[in-house]
Design brief:
Blueprint lengths: L4 E7 L1 H4 L15 H12 L3 E5 L7 H14 L4 E5 L2 H4 L6 H17 L3 E5 L14 H18 L2 E3 L22 H14 L19 H25 L11 E5 L9
Parallel strand pairs: 1-2, 1-3, 3-4, 4-5
Antiparallel strand pairs: 2-6
Amino acid sequence: MTTTQRYAALGDSFTEGVGDWDAASPNGVRGWADRVAEQLVLADPSWDYANLAIRGKKMRQILDEQIDAALALQPTLVTIYAGANDILRPRVDIDLLMARYDDGVGRLRDAGADVVLFTGFDASGSAVFGTTRGRTAVYNEWVREIADTRGATVVDYWRLREFQDWGYWDVDRMHMSAAGHTLMAVRVLEAMKASHRIDLPELEARPALKRVEQLRADAQWARAYLSPWVGRRLRGVSSGDALSPKYPTPGHPHWATVPA
Protein backbone atom coordinates (compact mmCIF):
# COMPACT_ATOMS: atom_id res chain seq x y z
CA MET A 1 0.00 0.00 0.00
CA THR A 2 1.33 3.44 -0.97
CA THR A 3 1.74 5.85 1.94
CA THR A 4 0.61 9.40 1.19
CA GLN A 5 3.26 12.08 1.50
CA ARG A 6 1.94 15.57 2.08
CA TYR A 7 3.50 18.94 1.38
CA ALA A 8 2.07 22.02 3.14
CA ALA A 9 3.28 25.50 2.11
CA LEU A 10 2.91 28.29 4.69
CA GLY A 11 3.61 32.02 4.58
CA ASP A 12 2.74 35.26 2.86
CA SER A 13 2.80 36.58 -0.74
CA PHE A 14 6.20 34.97 -1.38
CA THR A 15 4.75 31.49 -0.89
CA GLU A 16 1.27 32.26 -2.21
CA GLY A 17 2.94 33.09 -5.54
CA VAL A 18 2.29 36.81 -6.07
CA GLY A 19 4.10 37.98 -9.20
CA ASP A 20 3.66 34.66 -10.99
CA TRP A 21 0.29 35.63 -12.43
CA ASP A 22 -1.98 32.81 -13.64
CA ALA A 23 -5.67 33.42 -14.24
CA ALA A 24 -6.39 29.68 -14.05
CA SER A 25 -5.06 29.38 -10.49
CA PRO A 26 -6.87 30.29 -7.26
CA ASN A 27 -6.19 33.91 -6.22
CA GLY A 28 -4.81 34.42 -9.74
CA VAL A 29 -1.26 33.27 -8.92
CA ARG A 30 0.85 30.15 -9.26
CA GLY A 31 4.31 30.51 -7.68
CA TRP A 32 7.36 28.52 -6.70
CA ALA A 33 5.56 26.34 -4.11
CA ASP A 34 3.05 25.14 -6.72
CA ARG A 35 5.97 24.37 -9.03
CA VAL A 36 7.79 22.45 -6.30
CA ALA A 37 4.64 20.46 -5.57
CA GLU A 38 4.25 19.62 -9.26
CA GLN A 39 7.78 18.22 -9.39
CA LEU A 40 7.23 16.15 -6.25
CA VAL A 41 4.07 14.65 -7.78
CA LEU A 42 5.81 13.96 -11.09
CA ALA A 43 8.56 12.07 -9.26
CA ASP A 44 6.19 10.24 -6.90
CA PRO A 45 2.38 10.36 -7.24
CA SER A 46 1.93 9.54 -3.55
CA TRP A 47 2.54 13.23 -2.82
CA ASP A 48 -0.31 15.66 -2.33
CA TYR A 49 -0.22 19.38 -1.62
CA ALA A 50 -1.84 22.18 0.35
CA ASN A 51 -0.95 25.87 0.19
CA LEU A 52 -2.17 27.95 3.13
CA ALA A 53 -0.14 31.10 2.41
CA ILE A 54 -1.90 34.46 2.01
CA ARG A 55 -0.33 37.71 0.86
CA GLY A 56 0.23 40.45 3.42
CA LYS A 57 0.33 38.16 6.46
CA LYS A 58 2.71 39.01 9.28
CA MET A 59 4.57 36.55 11.48
CA ARG A 60 1.99 36.28 14.27
CA GLN A 61 -0.85 35.77 11.77
CA ILE A 62 1.06 33.01 9.98
CA LEU A 63 1.89 31.25 13.23
CA ASP A 64 -1.61 31.64 14.69
CA GLU A 65 -3.60 30.87 11.54
CA GLN A 66 -1.47 28.46 9.54
CA ILE A 67 0.53 26.25 11.93
CA ASP A 68 -2.47 24.52 13.49
CA ALA A 69 -4.16 24.21 10.11
CA ALA A 70 -1.03 22.61 8.70
CA LEU A 71 -0.62 20.22 11.63
CA ALA A 72 -4.21 19.07 11.18
CA LEU A 73 -3.21 17.92 7.68
CA GLN A 74 -0.41 15.72 9.11
CA PRO A 75 2.22 17.00 6.65
CA THR A 76 5.36 15.15 5.67
CA LEU A 77 7.00 18.34 4.43
CA VAL A 78 6.42 22.00 5.35
CA THR A 79 7.95 25.08 3.77
CA ILE A 80 7.52 28.28 5.73
CA TYR A 81 8.69 31.85 5.23
CA ALA A 82 7.39 34.42 7.71
CA GLY A 83 8.57 37.79 8.97
CA ALA A 84 9.25 39.79 5.81
CA ASN A 85 6.16 41.96 6.33
CA ASP A 86 7.16 42.54 9.97
CA ILE A 87 10.67 43.66 8.99
CA LEU A 88 9.14 46.36 6.78
CA ARG A 89 7.17 47.87 9.67
CA PRO A 90 8.45 51.07 11.36
CA ARG A 91 9.11 49.17 14.60
CA VAL A 92 9.80 45.49 15.17
CA ASP A 93 11.29 43.43 18.01
CA ILE A 94 13.17 40.89 15.93
CA ASP A 95 14.36 38.85 18.93
CA LEU A 96 10.78 38.39 20.21
CA LEU A 97 9.56 37.74 16.68
CA MET A 98 12.10 35.00 16.08
CA ALA A 99 11.55 33.36 19.47
CA ARG A 100 7.94 32.86 18.38
CA TYR A 101 9.14 31.59 15.01
CA ASP A 102 11.37 29.07 16.76
CA ASP A 103 8.38 27.79 18.74
CA GLY A 104 6.32 27.40 15.56
CA VAL A 105 9.08 25.58 13.71
CA GLY A 106 9.58 23.37 16.77
CA ARG A 107 5.92 22.34 16.71
CA LEU A 108 6.20 21.35 13.06
CA ARG A 109 9.37 19.36 13.66
CA ASP A 110 7.96 17.69 16.79
CA ALA A 111 5.04 16.51 14.65
CA GLY A 112 7.49 14.72 12.38
CA ALA A 113 7.47 17.06 9.38
CA ASP A 114 10.58 17.95 7.43
CA VAL A 115 10.78 21.75 7.45
CA VAL A 116 12.32 24.13 4.92
CA LEU A 117 13.06 27.71 6.03
CA PHE A 118 14.24 30.76 4.09
CA THR A 119 16.60 33.57 4.89
CA GLY A 120 15.49 37.03 3.80
CA PHE A 121 16.48 38.58 0.49
CA ASP A 122 19.36 41.05 0.31
CA ALA A 123 17.55 44.17 -0.91
CA SER A 124 20.70 46.26 -1.18
CA GLY A 125 19.79 47.10 -4.79
CA SER A 126 16.56 48.83 -3.73
CA ALA A 127 16.70 52.47 -2.65
CA VAL A 128 13.47 51.94 -0.67
CA PHE A 129 13.70 48.43 0.79
CA GLY A 130 17.49 48.45 1.12
CA THR A 131 17.05 50.45 4.33
CA THR A 132 15.90 47.24 6.07
CA ARG A 133 19.07 45.35 5.15
CA GLY A 134 20.41 45.38 8.71
CA ARG A 135 17.18 44.00 10.15
CA THR A 136 17.15 41.29 7.52
CA ALA A 137 20.72 40.28 8.37
CA VAL A 138 19.73 39.80 12.03
CA TYR A 139 16.64 37.86 10.94
CA ASN A 140 18.83 35.63 8.80
CA GLU A 141 21.16 34.73 11.66
CA TRP A 142 18.12 33.73 13.68
CA VAL A 143 16.83 31.58 10.82
CA ARG A 144 20.15 29.77 10.54
CA GLU A 145 20.25 29.20 14.31
CA ILE A 146 16.67 27.90 14.36
CA ALA A 147 17.47 25.57 11.47
CA ASP A 148 20.57 24.24 13.27
CA THR A 149 18.68 23.72 16.52
CA ARG A 150 15.53 22.23 15.02
CA GLY A 151 17.10 20.21 12.23
CA ALA A 152 15.49 22.17 9.39
CA THR A 153 16.72 22.84 5.85
CA VAL A 154 17.56 26.41 4.82
CA VAL A 155 17.16 27.98 1.40
CA ASP A 156 19.60 30.87 1.70
CA TYR A 157 17.76 33.54 -0.30
CA TRP A 158 20.28 36.16 0.87
CA ARG A 159 23.09 34.31 -0.94
CA LEU A 160 21.17 33.58 -4.16
CA ARG A 161 22.88 36.42 -6.02
CA GLU A 162 21.17 35.68 -9.33
CA PHE A 163 18.08 37.34 -7.86
CA GLN A 164 19.92 40.67 -8.01
CA ASP A 165 18.92 40.67 -11.70
CA TRP A 166 15.71 42.71 -12.05
CA GLY A 167 14.54 40.25 -14.70
CA TYR A 168 13.53 37.93 -11.86
CA TRP A 169 11.20 40.56 -10.38
CA ASP A 170 7.68 41.65 -11.17
CA VAL A 171 6.92 45.23 -12.26
CA ASP A 172 5.99 46.08 -8.65
CA ARG A 173 9.68 45.51 -7.64
CA MET A 174 8.42 43.76 -4.49
CA HIS A 175 7.60 40.25 -5.69
CA MET A 176 9.36 37.76 -7.91
CA SER A 177 8.20 37.43 -11.52
CA ALA A 178 7.23 34.11 -13.13
CA ALA A 179 10.91 33.67 -14.00
CA GLY A 180 11.87 34.38 -10.38
CA HIS A 181 9.36 31.89 -9.00
CA THR A 182 10.61 29.28 -11.46
CA LEU A 183 14.21 29.83 -10.37
CA MET A 184 13.18 29.72 -6.70
CA ALA A 185 11.42 26.39 -7.26
CA VAL A 186 14.66 24.97 -8.62
CA ARG A 187 16.67 26.28 -5.67
CA VAL A 188 14.17 24.86 -3.17
CA LEU A 189 14.24 21.44 -4.83
CA GLU A 190 18.04 21.54 -4.87
CA ALA A 191 18.13 22.36 -1.15
CA MET A 192 15.82 19.39 -0.55
CA LYS A 193 18.02 17.21 -2.78
CA ALA A 194 14.93 16.40 -4.84
CA SER A 195 14.89 15.69 -8.57
CA HIS A 196 13.15 18.01 -11.00
CA ARG A 197 12.48 18.62 -14.69
CA ILE A 198 12.35 22.41 -14.59
CA ASP A 199 14.18 24.33 -17.29
CA LEU A 200 15.56 27.61 -16.01
CA PRO A 201 14.16 30.62 -17.89
CA GLU A 202 16.31 32.77 -20.14
CA LEU A 203 15.94 36.42 -19.26
CA GLU A 204 15.52 39.07 -21.91
CA ALA A 205 18.24 41.68 -21.97
CA ARG A 206 17.01 44.97 -20.58
CA PRO A 207 18.35 48.14 -22.21
CA ALA A 208 20.11 50.53 -19.86
CA LEU A 209 18.03 53.62 -19.16
CA LYS A 210 19.38 57.12 -19.27
CA ARG A 211 19.20 59.01 -15.99
CA VAL A 212 16.09 60.99 -17.01
CA GLU A 213 14.38 57.80 -18.19
CA GLN A 214 15.23 56.03 -14.94
CA LEU A 215 13.88 58.90 -12.85
CA ARG A 216 10.67 58.86 -14.88
CA ALA A 217 10.34 55.08 -14.46
CA ASP A 218 10.96 55.38 -10.71
CA ALA A 219 8.30 58.05 -10.38
CA GLN A 220 5.77 55.94 -12.28
CA TRP A 221 6.58 52.94 -10.07
CA ALA A 222 6.16 55.01 -6.91
CA ARG A 223 2.72 56.23 -8.01
CA ALA A 224 1.51 52.83 -9.21
CA TYR A 225 2.94 50.54 -6.51
CA LEU A 226 4.82 52.19 -3.65
CA SER A 227 2.18 54.75 -2.70
CA PRO A 228 -0.69 52.21 -2.57
CA TRP A 229 1.52 49.86 -0.55
CA VAL A 230 2.33 52.59 1.98
CA GLY A 231 -1.30 53.67 2.06
CA ARG A 232 -2.51 50.18 2.98
CA ARG A 233 -0.08 50.04 5.87
CA LEU A 234 -1.13 53.44 7.16
CA ARG A 235 -4.77 52.28 7.06
CA GLY A 236 -3.96 48.94 8.68
CA VAL A 237 -5.30 46.91 5.77
CA SER A 238 -3.74 44.20 3.63
CA SER A 239 -4.11 43.09 0.02
CA GLY A 240 -4.85 39.62 1.39
CA ASP A 241 -7.64 40.56 3.83
CA ALA A 242 -10.41 39.26 1.56
CA LEU A 243 -8.53 36.18 0.35
CA SER A 244 -8.64 32.54 1.41
CA PRO A 245 -5.81 29.99 1.05
CA LYS A 246 -5.29 28.77 -2.51
CA TYR A 247 -5.31 25.08 -1.69
CA PRO A 248 -6.58 24.49 1.88
CA THR A 249 -7.45 20.87 1.13
CA PRO A 250 -4.62 18.50 0.15
CA GLY A 251 -4.74 17.11 -3.35
CA HIS A 252 -3.30 17.44 -6.83
CA PRO A 253 -4.02 20.93 -8.24
CA HIS A 254 -5.14 21.29 -11.84
CA TRP A 255 -1.63 21.83 -13.21
CA ALA A 256 -0.12 18.72 -11.59
CA THR A 257 -0.01 15.83 -14.04
CA VAL A 258 -0.02 12.61 -12.04
CA PRO A 259 2.01 9.82 -13.71
CA ALA A 260 -0.02 6.82 -14.77
